[in-house]
Amino acid sequence: MHTFEVKEDFLLDGKPFKIMSGAIHYFRVMPNDWYHSLYNLKALGFNTVETYIPWNLHEQEEGRFDFTDEIDLAKFVNIAKELGLFVILRPSPYICAEWEFGGLPAWLLNYRDIRVRSSDPRFIEKVANYYQALFEIIRPLQVDRGGPVIMMQLENEYGSYGEDKEYLRNLYDLMLKNGVTVPLFTSDGAWEQAQTAGTLMEKNVLATGNFGSKSKENFAQLKQFHEKHEKKWPLMCMEFWDGWFNRWGEEIIKRDPKELAEEVGEALEIGSINLYMFHGGTNFGFMNGCSARGQKDLPQITSYDYDALLDEQGNPTEKFFSVQRKIHELFPEIEQLEPLRKNVMEPKVASLKEKVSLFSVIESISRHQWSKYPETMEQLQQNYGYQLYQTKVPKSTTEEYFRVIDASDRVHFFLNNENIVTQYREEIGSKIFAKPDKEENHLAILVENMGRVNYGHKLFADTQRKGIRSGVMSDLHFICEWDQYSIDFTKIDFIDYTQTWIEGTPAFYRYELIVGNTGDTFIDLQEFGKGVVIINGVNLGRFWNVGPTLSLYVPGSILKEGVNEIVIFETEGKWSSKIRLEEQAIYKDM
């Protein structure tokens, strides 16, 4: 059991302690690989690991809490402890993290009058219910109770969102009520406006800064803010950005390893540091976030490689060794180790066994609900992924125009199983011309939620409600009588591949992969358009041929010796009879 205090220095058992931390998100790394990543952090010479805690994974349905299996937070923390690492937890309701809705659960959007990230009593009530369950798990993990957790975050970059101090005080009271005894902190941009809005100085909550360069200038601003409030606190960069995230259709962002090492060294000579990220990992499933840029939102890719010190697999990069050398130069007394490397599987080929159109099996792969007007995905309890809307329309003229009014994010419009148009945010609402050729015509609209924004003012925008929000018009009138199908990818075992495959429509393609010795691999998706990949029941995430990535990372832990099943759900009508699994990620020339 230890003590940890924030005085003029960080004090561990009463002695000065420089925090040298790296971020590893347990929810972006498979549990079998947690030890590997944490060991490599220790090998770097660092003493602490930091992780966010995503509310939307631990309470996917309101009132039902889960802290097991892939999101067993306590297990992750205890592995860190076994390796001699301390832990910083960031359990704030909002985490940003380039994560879907910034970690907020999508079911909150059904409470249309709740203002998130505010002192709205209805929002605080939802947070309080979550915290009661969450802190049952993390309360015993605190350093003064025999665990490794030395600090916890109050709120995340709130100074870039609001200035509702009552909200921050509510969170503070809830954390103390639930047994938090370690020091609390906030993390914001180092400049005064962000610090002033986002901190809670009256409660002695440590104010830290977020930046990725110019440490002298940023720490000077942070120190000046401390002194303005008569605080003699240690300086810490809670997010030292060593790389950056990536968005669909844009080039991969890289940072020079030597330049990074010099900047890390400069920061450590002044204060403490948390590298964001040490190991980025993967946005498995539908958990990627989205950047808000004016009227256009830009979803982030499945890979969260982040150009970090460990690559997406968890293996050391040149950045790792460059920073490791700098640590040894500055602190030669710190023990450093040879990092671990994971096995990569030899290239393999998987063969197509069966294929079937979504329209042919929609009843067995979804949950059906009817309503007079289309409802949003949240109203239909379909928080992520895809929603299919279907109805019948009569033939009134040889050419008709339709409009999908106010929908998010990406729309495939089909008439009698023909893809008439695909629309994205900026096109949605414009006229769709089609030629009904039957007395009664089948209209189908597939809507994809491509990820809710994770940062900025749009957290509160109506566009975060996905699916069709207002309705669909034919000529000048709204169409009624809708069958709505919430596609459930946990039901792929119920797909009947003997049903019809319809060219040019969204479809499921089932492949078999024979494996001898398992290991990490990358599935080559260059021949496909857009969709998701599911291997042995695990949703690896989204792919899209706009790049920059044209492959998905496959952790070796989800593969097995013998026959492995790969199911690809593809929406653009592009497919291949064979798929390759390669030793490295594949990128598109941008």
From TrEMBL:
UniProt GO MF annotations: beta-galactosidase activity
Domain Beta-galactosidase 1-like first all-beta: 374-487
Coiled coil: none
Residue ranges annotated for the Glycoside hydrolase 35 catalytic domain, each copy included: 10-328
Protein name from the UniProt record: Beta-galactosidase
Catalytic activities: Hydrolysis of terminal non-reducing beta-D-galactose residues in beta-D-galactosides
Pfam families recorded: BetaGal_ABD_1, BetaGal_gal-bd, Glyco_hydro_35
Ranges for domain Beta-galactosidase galactose-binding: 506-564
Keyword match Hydrolase: yes
SUPFAM superfamilies: (Trans)glycosidases, Galactose-binding domain-like
Phylogenetic classification of the source organism: Bacteria, Bacillati, Bacillota, Bacilli, Lactobacillales
Keyword annotations: Glycosidase, Hydrolase
GO annotation, biological process: carbohydrate metabolic process
UniProt-listed PROSITE patterns: GLYCOSYL_HYDROL_F35
Positions annotated as active site in the UniProt record: 157, 239
